[in-house]
Amino acid sequence: MVDRDAPPPLIITRDFNAPRELVWRAWTQPDAIIRWHGPKFYPAAEVRADVRVGGAWRACLKSGNAEDVVLWQSGRYLVITPPERLEFTFAWETPNHEDGPGVETHVTVRLEELSNGGTRMHFSQTGFLSTKSAVSHSAGWNGTFDRLAKFLLDGMASQPPEILPAQTLTRVGSASDGGPAWAKCA
């Protein structure tokens, strides 16, 4: 039975002027992810990615304005088929986000090699609570993919990962006391 009131999936198709292997690395290497993840006004300040089936990922997006808003997001990798398919769950941990904690969506990224040497990315996200949320995510992901396009053109080659000190998280607590807790991103 199909839920006719369920928000439609978010579907974005983007062509990148970069080989598929490079786009794949941008999606799967934490030192690359931190350099493009998040839209312009909420870039990633911290990223952790254990890119294997069942592995966890977590990112902190931080506004650069006076309010200094911090948004945590996380999930688990479900499917990893290099260099063509990546599936993972996506959830906001931050209570001030409209979806709030506990709402898990499903993201699929499929990379298609183009005859001109570029890559077509087919992105979909499903499981939203509302159409408003899907529209909000569309704006966020499109802004993020603008940054990914720029990163693929000039960032992947010109900025060594060592210049990004925020790629590691500070752990507070341990698995023995209920699991890891993470410090507020800097």
From TrEMBL:
CDD domains in the record: SRPBCC_CalC_Aha1-like (cd07814)
Domain of life per record: Bacteria
Gene3D superfamilies: 3.30.530.20
InterPro entries, per database record: ASHA1/2-like_C, START-like_dom_sf
Annotated ranges, domain Activator of Hsp90 ATPase homologue 1/2-like C-terminal: 17-152
SUPFAM superfamilies recorded: Bet v1-like (SSF55961)
Pfam families xrefs: AHSA1 (PF08327)
Protein family: Belongs to the AHA1 family.
Protein name per its UniProtKB record: SRPBCC domain-containing protein
